[in-house]
Write a structure and sequence with these properties.
Helix content: 40-55%
Structural class: alpha/beta
Mean pLDDT: 89
Number of strands: 10
Organism: Thiogranum longum
CATH architecture of the largest domain: 3-Layer(aba) Sandwich
CATH class of the largest domain: Alpha Beta
Keywords: Phosphoprotein
Protein name: Two-component system chemotaxis response regulator CheY
Order of helices and strands: EHEHEHEHEHEHEHEHEHEH
Length: 264
């Protein structure tokens, strides 16, 4: 469990509805979270963040001046806000809105209305994202691990790098797609490869197949991160030899547990 507590979090809630604000504020108060800041639109929220960077932003999808997707993408373009944890509470199910959110590294997507228990679980995921427990490996120290992260989205790579760094990993290489990753894999040894599925040039399934059948590191653990829901495609991914598949969004605890299971 994180060394942080809910009482220490600086939370900004972005919600145009006074009713929804009272409900969520009530949930957080019952959990022991101090008074949260409140913005009713995206521009006000961004101004509040610039004045005092929060630990966590909780937003609905549809705001008067932008969407929650627009808001998190604006945050990820700002050096001051790029690493701020972001949580969505929304009844939206349209992939047009949700896919960019998943790529931007949200820590949780909750239904609207959500229960207090659902919010509590997401809040503890936020704590773990902000200050996770370090990796505990039997035969190697986390700072000695050599990890390759493959994703065509700069923002997604940044989020995964941040998680790995918080777990104590220091040696991390990056590639924008499978084709670029192959050149890196053949030039240095890796203890772990974390890859996205949908990428141009060469996707994650093709990269995993190459690693298992043609590379000089055929036994390296490969973790795949994806928002793919097509069962046939996912079956093909599993057959390509990946060691584990994570849905976006995923939390630090999931990543830590998988690494410890595969490398201990």
């Amino acid at each position: 469990m994180s060394l942080l507590s809910l009482q220490q979090l600086d939370v900004l809630l972005v919600e145009p509805s006074s009713t929804q604000h009272r409900i969520i504020d009530g949930y957080l108060t019952a959990m022991g979270t101090p008074a949260i800041r409140w913005a009713q639109d995206g521009d006000t929220a961004l101004a509040l963040m610039q004045a005092n960077t929060p630990d966590l932003v909780i937003s609905t999808m549809h705001l008067p001046d932008m969407t929650g997707t627009d808001l998190v993408l604006r945050m990820r373009e700002d050096d001051q806000l790029i690493d701020v944890a972001f949580m969505l509470i929304s009844s939206e199910t349209d992939i047009h809105y949700l896919e960019p959110l998943r790529q931007a590294g949200v820590i949780a997507i909750l239904p609207k209305p959500c229960t207090q228990e659902q919010l509590r679980t997401a809040m503890y995921n936020a704590l773990d994202f902000l200050e996770p427990e370090p990796l505990e490996l039997e035969n190697i120290a986390p700072e000695e691990l050599n990890v390759l992260v493959v994703d065509d989205s700069f923002t997604s790579r940044r989020i995964i790098l941040s998680m790995l760094e918080k777990l104590g990993v220091e040696k991390i290489s990056e590639a924008e797609n499978g084709k670029q990753a192959i050149g890196i894999i053949e030039s240095q040894f890796f203890d772990l490869i974390v890859t996205d599925y949908n990428m141009p040039e060469m996707d994650g399934r093709e990269l995993s197949t190459y690693i298992r059948s043609e590379s000089s590191q055929q036994s390296v653990p490969v973790l795949m991160v994806t928002s793919e829901t097509d069962k046939a495609r996912l079956a093909g991914v599993e057959q390509s030899g990946v060691s584990a598949i994570f849905d976006k969004p995923f939390n630090v605890d999931t990543l830590r547990s998988a690494i410890q299971r595969l490398l201990s």
